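Bench notes, afternoon.
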Amino acid sequence: MKTVWAKSQKQFFGANGSIMSGVIIEYKGERRCLELSSDGAKYSRNCAPRPNLFQFFVDIFLPEGFPESVSKDYVQYQIWDSFQALFSSLNGALATKAVLTGVGVGNAEATVLGATLTWLIRDGASMIGRISFSALIGSQLDANCKQWRLFADILNDVAMGFEIVSPMLMPNYMFLIFCIAGICKAIVGVAGGATRTALTYHQAQKGNFADVAAKDGSQETLVNLFALVVNLLLLPIMVSSTTMTLTFFILLSVFHVYANYKAVSSLCIPRLNRHRLNYIIEQFSRNGQVPCVDLANRNELLFNLSCGRERHMFGKDIIVAPSVSKYGYLKELEGIQSELFALIENKNKKQTAIFLSNKSNAKHTIQAYYLATTKNIGVHPEDFVSKLESVGWEIDDQLLLVGEYRLQVDKISSS
């Protein structure tokens, strides 16, 4: 393979302030050499090469172009995510042993047919759970990826807990418990996979979604390989004692949840969902300051799964882009005054509906949400959106759980 060297002409300032021109010669993973010349004199400085082992690790487990190609929170999140994967893998070995015991492995009276039927019915219940959860909650996973990712990992611990304790404490109900655990794990698979995709979109800063996802898989595989070695050493010891098994599982579950909480807490997503936007509007209405991306993410509630129904500070639900006929607002919309959006308040149900036109975009959605929440506190919605943009928020995209219905505005009536 031909070695390619990158050269670039640069200018530098010497110690006495004189301008020095030179050439930077650099090859990835090898020695960097800097040659300078000033007034006929030549200067050279050799930089120490990076260790080959370090470069080997970077090439295999980190995305190309790291760290510029990923978000700033990438390293901290991946460290905690690796810890949670380790604890989950260790617990998974205990759960696998319990499931095999429950279906009859080691029991002379158990039949292969009975174990097979139990496994198939468990898988069938998991499939139904996966489809149902995707239909009910699928649209929420992008907007609240932090909350649902934390929920998925907690639910995974609950499912493994069911599998571990059922052969010990409830042997007569193992079939039912295994089906429930299977459904829980199916939900975990949907929520965990979907939120991982949303986080990859956030972390991939150079359009390198596939590379970030692939390297995340490599990191998790390495962690699972390490967990496999630990399981081979500890599992024969732990399964000999029920007390030791339960103690080990509880401790690992606590560490697992803590690592997950630290992982999602480290995320700093610059797109607005309802949790973050409500916090921003509340702070803005109090002191006139728009919180930055870091501050709003740190104050985001992680144990709040509103499933799309979010009450703002005036105690009303905000519904964005609903069906006109479904909510019965058709007559009230006859006098619409804007080509971008309309706000209709239902005082009986404590709801505010935001109807978007086919000409509106993400900025207009944020403006409409701001008006529906604050009743206009004296700052024009466009100025509020400009303040959001000035402190680093991405306003050309949003995660406000917007419905698919749009109004076709052909003619605006005058009042």
